[in-house]
Amino acid sequence: MALCDFDMIFRYVVVGWEGTAHDSRVLTETIRNSRNKFPIPPPDKYYLVDAAYSHTRGFMAPYRHVRYWLGDFRSGGRARGREEIFNHARAKLRNVIERAFGVLKARFPILKRMVPYSFDTQRKIVVACMAIHNFLRKISVDDALFAQYENDEVELESGHSNQNHTANAINSSSIEDQIYVDGNAEASNSNDIGFCYGKLENDLPSATDVINPYKKYSIGKIRLFDPNDAALNALRGSQIDVTLGVRNEDLPNLAASQDAANSWFATNMEPYLKDVVFSLIAVGNQVIPREFCQYVLPVMQILNNILKLPMLRLCSIHCTRSSSYRCELELL
Asked: Which domain of life is it from (predicted)?
């Protein structure tokens, strides 16, 4: 995680987060630990952040559910309405971080394919590359890479790569651009790789067109952030392990009564039990410590009751440090 100024100079960086985590979790944990000395912006200032972060004091995120990537405006025409106009102007400013990383990775190919040094050495390599990057920028050397990426309309990073940073974007010109690798880049085979099925974009392909690449490349896992009938129907008979998310806005209702939770299960899972492989239920998507966090534990407990139904055998339940609660289950 890095901060940069409008001159493409990195001002702060967190290097060495082990495993996979959402962008907002890395930020939250960094701020909470005073030893990290995170530079909180003063009351009249703010950081421009992408859609993976929450819009809150000191951090300005784009409007959701309308276009906000520069590539979207190039392909879809000029911004329409005040929210899109705001997002377009904001994206041109925030694009400096994309360009800074573009220069960094173009200059230091080792960052794209790291040599298997020790973990500590790899961290030092990243920091050293950023330090050299800053040095070259500050001495105003006549550099072809910086000149190439001076234009604020240049888009280096995939516009969709930051939806969920448990994920690495797949770069191709096909439908796989719409799905995201869920974490384990060193998986020994494709069945160990999972994808997050994100839908916070415009003009998305059909659920069938999204699921077909999973089947084609034998991708073994998928996470749905909410119960999506079209996606679940497309997954029938696929043997793909499904993590099914509960919508944050549904948490208060589910926490209120067992009947509401039973109804949620009957509507969103029971019709698919025979031919969809549900492996996990995720409760609370980035809600801790935000709105709805008070409902996470009650919903955990209520769903646990449902998973004790005779048709299901509960394998294990555990809470993680992330904002998602996961119940592992399998069919008898």
From this structure: Eukaryota
